[in-house]
């Protein structure tokens, strides 16, 4: 039997990890001579204290949901896709092409096309490392990292030489037409009488991200393909025995993963910037790794972890704005969260398992025999 | 009266809620061979791991030659004169015998003096115990029987007086096993104490002086071997009467179901693993493939199961079976009516982290009965798993439990239920009872015979000669990728098969 009840596994472990990361972060803030309590208050009020703060938190969270799901799907197939950053960049290119070169009558149709375009470009960018892994045995971690750099170069070239409007000094596309403007949460919630900050960038992409969470959950746990992906991820030999093709699963899982990472562009490129700029992804591809690890590759976990990291991003920006705590400290706090929830998972898990064992032993004094 | 060479008093060890050893006491006199027998998971290995310092007992005391001894790690066990020969050898393949023997027991920073000293004592040991091994041979170039001798020599070189052997005959041919037992007898004469852990009743009966039986973490009995019988020991192990022989009627072979002609398989290292196999399996018969592990049986199962490529011709009910390309995978084999219970159930047949119901669908997950629309019909799969678990007496009967939480025998029942109930024309089954407790062995054998009696063809691969002889209707012996000969089980014996397994052609003899 599993030593820990499931509820403890999914709630206690991440929460305690988070608490430890928070305590350590507080010590670091103390060490640089600032007040950790005030810092936390500022972060909470900045990120969650107003609809403006929420708007930013959810905007970041939307990005992280897409990239987190991307990493999670690949992890289920036993593949470590570190290329979310590059795939999201290419997804941006897909969105830009869809929005700039096709005249859309209404955003609702445009966003569907953008979903297809961004997913297609992201998936294509993941397809090459996937093919190299499946057919040539080139390790996907190495190739996806390299493809991040290539993606940056491709984007740079395209923006400077192809998509930059004549006469502009800025390596960016021109603004997307007004017809493809995605409604922000302010615009979406106003008809219901809910006042939401006008300035915050959170937009309808959040809904798409949540739908993506549900679809990924269905795919992984409710379809034969999901069973095949998870089988391949758990045991390649068993998959081979069952007739589950290694090349097929590697390709499919990476295409889905890359597609999800690419879809992040709907949020940041189409929803927020409304044009494609250099470095639009801003590291969200890498945060996705932490989100997937913390969320245990489960869509619900990814959803919650994405919101947490959205909070850290927005709260951290507030800290840098209003205190003398340097912006770099935010990176330290985020790193601590990643360290405790991802890498040091066992540090929390093992003592917890021991506690649960002791509890169970005391509850049932007559011990079960060996099986 | 001399003190026992080794004495355990009240040893207990729990892993969480599982009591692996419970108040175990044994005492073994010097110069004897003591057997420890028990089903898988009875706690034998845990007990020996405590003795060798891998685990710390929760309670209990260890006495070596009458002195209370603490064994916190394996160094302490070696210092106390305990040597261990593991089931899976711990040798460096590309080192010589001599280098392996001094590994970890070097004197000083330079190798030369150690090697010279080891060479000298190796010659002495060889003379004393008839343990002849070429000190300069590379491990990878000598056979498993020889490798096992190196393990024994390693222990003796470290001045072991007590030698523990864990399932030592699992990888040996019958004649190699005989040699091993001769060596053990010789060691006993020289006053060494030997603890033999095995699940083979025959070995216990043939070689030991006393035997302890373990069941569910407890020592249920310690008896003099001369005063017991295999049936009695089996009963002590399982806790009820067991049938040691398979109960079956003579086979009524029908048409040829599987016809293999000139099958060859070359592995990734370009080594030819199957070198022209010709075999036939008829409906309603069990063809047993005997042989020492690693002589091509695994490759035969893999190519028939669709996941290794080969050349030659195979037909199933007269229709050709593809041996390479797109239609040569597990899925298309299943569609052709070939079910496969793989040799390694933990790495191939099951996914240990998956629940029993997911494992029940595994391989057959495209079955329309398991779908509703685009989604899996998990409720249907769970219901079917529950029914299968009841029919095959899987314990505990919980479809939600992960495969890793079942015992070996119950894991095998989950695989068997999945494959047999597909009503295949041909069942491939590898090592059906490896790591399976005696009680479940009986049940598994009955299921295989029942499938045969329904007129299905069964290809059985097992390294357990006893299993082949009692279960198969016809026996083919494989050696080095070839079939050395076919025999009828009632017209042959272990000695003849043993020669064939060692590559001595029976037809010439």
Determine the CATH topology of the largest domain in chain B.
Answer: Rossmann fold
Q: Which of globular, elongated, flat, extended, rod-shaped describes the shape of chain A?
A: globular
Q: What low-confidence regions of chain A span 5 or more consecutive residues with pLDDT below 50?
A: 365-371
Q: Number of DSSP strands of chain A? A: 1
**From the structure provided, what is the oligomeric state, counting identical versus distinct chains?**
heterodimer
Strand tally of chain B is 22
Distance between the termini of chain B: 53 Å
Helix content class of chain A = over 70%
Approximately what portion of the residues of chain B adopt beta-strand conformation?
25-35%
Structural class of chain B: alpha/beta
Question: What is the overall pLDDT average of chain A?
Answer: 90
Major sheet strand order of chain B: 6-7-8-3-9-10
CATH superfamily descriptor of the largest domain in chain B: P-loop containing nucleotide triphosphate hydrolases
Give an overview of the whole structure.
The complex is a heterodimer of chains A (371) and B (509). With 371 residues, chain A is mostly helical. Chain A has a domain at 64-298. Chain A is 75% helix and 1% strand. The longest helix of chain A is centred in the N-terminal third of the chain and has 30 residues, at 107-136. The model of chain A is unreliable at 365-371 (pLDDT under 50). Chain B is of the alpha/beta class. Chain B has 2 domains: 6-238, P-loop containing nucleotide triphosphate hydrolases (Rossmann fold, 3-Layer(aba) Sandwich); 256-347 and 425-501, 3-Layer(aba) Sandwich (Rossmann fold). Chain B has helices at 44-51, 74-79, 97-102, 111-129, 144-157, 174-189, 201-207, 230-238, 297-305, 330-335, 345-349, 356-361, 378-391, 408-420, 438-453, 465-471, 494-501, and strands at residues 6-15, 18-28, 33-38, 59-64, 67-69, 82-85, 162-166, 193-198, 210-215, 218-224, 256-266, 272-282, 286-290, 311-316, 319-320, 338-341, 371-372, 375-376, 426-430, 457-461, 474-479, 482-487. In chain B, strands 6-7-8-3-9-10 form a 6-stranded mixed sheet, sandwiched between helices. The radius of gyration of chain B is 24 Å and the shape is globular. Chains A and B meet through helix 9, helix 10, helix 15 and strand 1 of A and strand 2, helix 10, helix 11 and strand 18 of B.
